[in-house]
Amino acid sequence: MSMTFFLVSAGLFVVGALLALLTGRSEKLSRTLSSIFGAAASLFALIAGGNAIIFCSESLTLATPFAFAPLPLLINPLTGLLLVVINLLALAAWTFGFSYLREYSGREVSVIGFFMSLFIVAMNLLVAVDNVFWFLVFFEIMSLCSYFLVVVKQDEMSVKAGFLYLVMAHIGFLLIMIAFFIMSSAAGSFDFAVFRITDFGPQTASVVFLLTFIGFGIKAGMVPFHTWLPKAHPAAPSQVSALMSGAMIKIGIFGIVKVGLDLLASSGCELWWGLLIVLFGAVSAVFGIIYALTERDIKSLLAYSSIENIGIILLGVGTGFVGVALHLPSLAGLGFLAGLFHLLNHAVFKGLLFMGAGSVIFSTHTRDIEKLGGLIKVMPLTAVCFLCGSLAVAALPPLNGFVSEWFTYQAMFTAAFEGALMVRVVFALAAVALVVTGALALATFVKAFGLSFLGAPRTREAHEAREVPFTMKLAKVVLAAFCVGLGLGAPLVVPYIQSISASFLAGSPDLLQIGRYLFNPELYAVISPPMIALLLISLGAIVASVALLLHRGNVASNRDPWACGYLHETEMPMRPSSFAGQMNTFFKPLFTLRSTITAQSDKFISLFNSSVRGAKKAEDFSDRYVVDSVSSFVKWLALKSKGIEGGNFRVYLLYIVVALLVLLILAITFKGGGPL
Amino acid sequence: MIGTLIGFAQILLLALAAPLVSGATRWMRAKMQTRKGPPILQDYYDIIKLFKREDIHTKESSLIHRIMPALFTTTLLLLAMGIPTLTRGCPLPFMGDFILIIYLLALPRFFFALSAVDSGSSYAGIGGIRELIIGILCEPVMLLALFVTMLATGTTNIGFMGDAIASGAVVNPIAVTLAGIAFACACYIELGKLPYDLAEAEQELQEGPLSEYSGPSLALLKMSLSMKQIIIVSWLIAIFLPFGSAVELTLPALALGLVFYLLKVFAIFFICTIIENVVSRVRYKLLGHQTGVVFGIAAFAFVFFLLGM
After folding, report:
1. Given A129, A521, B33, B271, which residue has the most CB atoms within 10 angstroms?
2. Residue B161 belongs to what domain range?
């Protein structure tokens, strides 16, 4: 059943993409069609993913025009989780985008619809394919589509961000490609199925792991390969930022897990792989959040927070790898449960937060927190949803972020308890990093929520803001409900996530959930999110009613804040810079470190540029003798064919579509017996 | 069932005794400074008086500012259900995980700082940020100290940790003692006393957000701050000084546990008052240096644990 739904979803996405493009003349029609088809397609893929998690894996091989690379699809529980994450967010993004795209009116709304459809379907196919060639193809399509979505605004900032993103994405792609080619030359096949049963030996396996770890780490936005992320994600439309931060960077995590434990399954897993992942995770978590704290642009702040959360996911996943290497199935189960659960949770709350930020941008047309303030009075629903997301991302009980972070702590503690000296030192560092991250995340989201939504409006724009249209509210309410549901309902969700990690782990991990309690039997630890929520609500009701009963005076809310006897002025309240100033006093060395790290990305760019220059020089050499004549012919041809290429973006897209259609027709004509 | 009962009893006890504890510390401090000081029951009078007064909020403030006091109190009452006081084990085991306690303490801190921003007052705002910074500086110390204790006792449940320490099952006495010292220092900073904070004055300090509260909201907050002190002290007692608490749930054991608990709480608050009387306020910016030293102690505890001592 999964496979049928999956194929229908892919088909709907492609049709939706084409329709969005063909109806480009009417913005409204294009927006409506792409949203409806996209939402329907996401729903189908969501069902496919859920079905794979709950019931069983399914596989299918499609014939393709390329004889050397048929298209094998495999939907196993891990793929299912990724499908659920991507398409749950996509569903919310399409709903949100239906109204939000009005903000982009007159700026290629149809192009956004087209690329967003292709972007999502590429991610869906990427997690489902079981073949090197197609994996790389879809990886590239995903990167390219998201690149176009980043530069869609066409201003200087987004073009610059897009270029950095493109370069970094391709460095990652290159590393992954090299790793895959090493594997396929050793295994003698392009099929992942063959990789799984091939023993590559420890050296090759380690090289492959290292290459893919860095390659996928770049995609995941791990520090120090993160510099593209806080520039690229905010540049895209908000619902696309939600997809990129919530879903696309998870592809990086998926890749690390898939290569390390699935494709290298027969080669064994080394202890240092896990420790490396944990260390990178700890560094990413702390640095991600410390940079988020000083950010004034609300979307950059959220993007930096994504780096932090990738770090937390890596902590969980790395602990899982340590568990596999030490042959401790319960530790491995705990680590992957923590990592995968946080992967899901982060997608939900970061999607919610980006859409909240999108709503703010929609009604105030600014991303600068400095220019906001007081929005809770004019946008109450958006404010409540954003608060809900903030509580979840700050890992406050009993919401979902807390539950997965609790499991992350438990996994790391268990590893430290069971492990030897080296393991203990690494996990002590990691645990301290995680608690620092938690405390900093608290401060960051006090700033993000407090200074945008509370207090007095600081500018006219914030004063005149209005609540957003219905579909934008709907998307946020649904995601906020998921934040609460995944937290309070964690005892119901945990067994399914455990079954996902059990599908690629050997040995039987401990039972981590009984009734409404969550356990870590290794350390006699137990919590119960639903009970905490129940007690909080009932005690809260008691406290509030007692306070109301006892109170004899009035309630007034008409005074100016006290200013030590001076008259209150509008310049007096807190501003984002007051936050930054205070934090700078205490954590200055960490900020100076950032400029060092950021400088590295400029080096990457200049490396790229210089290699291009070098290539140009080398090219020149042969040019002068061989190519000149050809090139002058091409020049002539280009002049003649100027009529065909109008320099219009849309015409180029039409060419791509025509080429795709021709390919499709070819495929059907020559391989007519396929399941399509 | 009996655990739940004890949990609810602890809630009642905490809510009723909080003003007594804060009143008693004020009285003790006055005596040490050879002042007459307020009567011990003064804080009860204050709270009763405040409930009769108007509840004033600033113009710009929103719902967050109004719900914060009740939320603060609620979270502390919830914490009171899980922390062992008379008994050795946690009354409600699912409330006794130390990670949960650290993050539950962060929940009111989040709203405390938010309400400071919400009030629109600059002094309250600075106080809110400082409260957050204290969290950032203290939580790592607490976590590392408890991490070492977790390694030594093999559990993250504070009831079981206390049990292992009290029964002498721990093979790393030096490490656990050092961890206890580091944890106690971090707890002291969290209590909001001199040299780090001065609860009675100065709006730009930790309790700055209080300056925009009045009437019943202020009453709830005053109670909550006192309750927070008791909870943190009980937390320290439950893990590192569990001696004398009731292992079995019999009436005599519980009575003895109560006596020991009250003695320990009194002793700790007495020591705190002495410290408060002999130090002057430290410059706020130096807080980072001092928590650094405390973190060093916790790190030493970890090193000693690795050495097996």
Report:
1. A129
2. 2-306
